[in-house]
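Moderator note: this is an archived Q&A kept for reference. The question asked for a predicted structure of one protein chain; the sequence and the answer are reproduced below.
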Amino acid sequence: MDKSDWLAAAKRVRQQSARYGSGYIQDFDLDIFEHLKVVDFGDADIPPEANVAPTVENVLAAQAAVELKVNQALDAGAIPIVIGQNSPCGSFAIAKPISERTKGAVGMVSLDTHWDSGTLDALTSDPRIAGSASWKHKTYELLKNFKEKNLVEIGERGMLENKDIVRRYLKAGAHFYPMWKVRTELGIEGLVKELRHAYEGTEAVYAHFDMDVLGGAGPAPGDILGELAEPIGMTDYEVIRIAHEVGKRGLTGFSFICIPPGSAVVYRTIVYVIAYLMAGLVFGRMNAKKKR
């Protein structure tokens, strides 16, 4: 796939969202727009040169452009949902503003095929860059109120990772749910119960979905991801369900990266993730009112 196909993700998701005439979700007999104020806040002003010349200066400028938009959304009391394709713009640039605005601990729910926890960005080898293979490491290195004990990591599997990296996170208290455990032991109902670890003792929660986690299990064939595809991927339902459950529990910010390019149904899946997340927010607020 040409880079332009990957970069078109936000536009393609918007185009697919136009397919749906309202915010009415028949599964729940719920119109989310009757309960939530929702706005498309437009694109971050990322310098075009960042896509063709990813120097340290260009990457940092792109990150700053996303941070600006995220901060503006947070200033308005909104929950930013960032449709990105790579790091740091679709990950660290959301985690950092949330961290800076939170006095207490910040939890994270992360879906991914890869841990993204190398000590240095593979592209630039610069310690300032929270790149695609290092953004999670940089989050826990630089953002001190992100605590591994409040990390819920879902989806990695197989033989890709350095054992020392995985074991370091486990030793620090991270809650890791590889797809083998999800399939053989937990199932989706057991998995959503484990989301509690991101909320225990935290004041904010950041949810991050790296959509290479689909990996060919559905709705699109794995080969659309090329070398990123791995067996035992998550299904579209599992990803949408987790987003819904995160919404019910509440969150501070949400982001996507690595949305498989060139598939209308994958772009529709992102629309579903966002809509069912918002439905979860509505239900969570309804339940909170009942308890008062």
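Archived answer notes: The longest strand covers residues 146-154.
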